[in-house]
Write a structure and sequence with these properties.
The chain is 38% helix and 11% strand. With 175 residues, the protein is of the alpha+beta class. Helix 3 packs across helix 6. The longest helix has 23 residues. It comes from Sphingomonas chungangi.
């Protein structure tokens, strides 16, 4: 099977019953994606496929051949962190760090969802041109990613700060 992972074409000979999570961790050595519950309930295994977040423990690898798969390893490097990675450090968005890769991947996708105007369970007016980015909105959209340490306040602040900074940069560029 051929996969596009973190912008690299990769061939892998795995059983068709192999989950995307097990392909990443056990066959390709990309251990940033974590195996938490292995039942799709915790979000530790969240990765991006074609820009959308998925729980990789629930996905068969064979379903994602030739699609753009992005893991935490593909978001940034030690010398060049993704803005959300830097914000998680600045705002103490983690304690033990186990859930952090899934939280960050989920937050990247969530910001894209809001920019595209996709509603959440809290969206009251679907005709709004821009959906708000309130703490409640972030909590609702991130509810599929659990943190056993309870670092939610730092996670929320990291996401809000990153979104506010990116929005300010976009307004500056448009002016």
């Amino acid at each position: 099977m051929r996969f596009i992972i973190n912008e690299h074409s990769i061939e892998a000979d795995v059983d068709v019953r192999t989950s995307l999570l097990d392909l990443l961790r056990d066959h390709l050595g990309l251990t940033g994606t974590k195996k938490g519950c292995n039942q799709g309930a915790c979000g530790a295994c969240t990765v991006l496929v074609d820009g959308e977040r998925i729980n990789s423990c629930l996905a068969l690898a064979v379903q994602y051949q030739d699609r753009e798969i992005l893991t935490i390893e593909g978001l940034g490097t030690i010398g060049d962190l993704h803005p959300l990675q830097a914000a998680f450090i600045e705002y103490d968005g983690f304690q033990c760090g186990y859930c952090t890769p899934g939280q960050i991947c989920s937050a990247v996708a969530m910001i894209g969802e809001i920019r595209r105007g996709l509603p959440s369970a809290l969206t009251e007016d679907l005709a709004l041109e821009q959906i708000g980015f309130s703490e409640d909105e972030i909590r609702e959209r991130m509810s599929g990613n659990l943190c056993r340490c309870g670092a939610y306040n730092g996670i929320i602040e990291a996401i809000r700060a990153t979104y506010a900074e990116e929005s300010a940069q976009e307004r500056e560029a448009a002016a």
